[in-house]
UniProtKB/TrEMBL annotation:
It comes from Candidatus Iainarchaeum sp. It comes from the Archaea. The keyword DNA-binding applies. Keywords: DNA-binding. GO terms for molecular function: DNA binding. This is Transposase. Residues 306-371 form the Cas12f1-like TNB domain. Pfam families: Cas12f1-like_TNB. The keyword DNA-binding applies.
Amino acid sequence: MWLVKTVRVKAFEPTRVKKQFMALLLENSRLMNEYLSLMQAHQTTSKQHLHLLSYERLTQALKLPAAVVQTARDKAVQIYRSHLAMKKDGPDCKLPCFRMTTPVRLDRRCFNIIETKNKLTYVAAMSVKGGRVHVPLLGQRYQYRQLRKIVAGELKLGSVELVKRGKDFYFHLAIKKETPDIDPDYSYTPVGVDLGLINLSTSVILKGGRPCNILFQRGGNALEMRKRFATFRASLSRAGKFRRIRETTGKERRCMRDINHKISKSILAQANQTEKPIIVMERLTYIRERIHRGKKLNAMLHSWAFAQLQEFIAYKAAWAGIPVMYINPKYTSQQCNKCGFTSKANRLGRSFKCGDCGYELNADLNAAINIAKAYKNFAPGYRSGALGARDSALTLQARA
């Protein structure tokens, strides 16, 4: 199975190539708009048909590398097909128009990464209008580590996009990695992950039936941040400053994304502390329909990025070769992990006290242990058992 992720690196000191980059962006947008017009006029999305209609004329008129013309055509075809699909749902859907800052897609024919002995070790060699240029790449340790693996052949470089953001230019590198398909068995060690608000995540490793390596990810700062943004947006709404509301919403989303990245990274580091780990999480389908906690708390829960956090954990796990399992969330927070007694009365806010055996524990930790135990309780393909009957088989997968 091939996994793909994107790494962003900055073009260092682009002043000397700024004219070439701007010319490439401009000609690329003109080219894609031309292809959209052709597809609309001839009612076709066939790449071969478009090639016969326009390839020679456009390459001669724009003086662009052949690979850039072909990648622009392919990208325009993808966007036009998406437009046609959206038009079926909404007939008023307008044909997109590309601006001069539309990112340019490049492939291995017109883009390559070279390792040098200079202070800035990695250089992008790329084709532009009028020739080929070499641009030093600037990044942090993570980016340099990925570039080193690309040059060494450990990772495969896919398509690349040249993106202009403000005064700077960036390369978005799609890197690929092949991982073997994993069929987990009982020899794997489960890492149960419970998501919440007070503790954004509670994770625990279950070794020999005993919990160890417990990790709480506190959510106090995130909650306070969300409340501040909500109060600020309310004041802006009363003042009629709707543009500022959109700006603050984007900032809040970026903050939550950063928090979720850090949490998922910590959970993967925790999982890597044991041999043959498998991460076990709740299936959160229809979670918003199941939440009824009052107006204010409902608004907070419904806007929480649970799915995004799970996606980050899943793709990081897949990249590391760790399988991920999803279970039915029914009764995970109500069942005693010691005796199995299940009751709503067991859950007392943030605490858990079993009404049968009297066992006491943090409620989130109890749920995480139950989630981890669910892996041991189910044989592969088994459709019912502990933690309640399920409407479908367990999802055993490593997401890309």
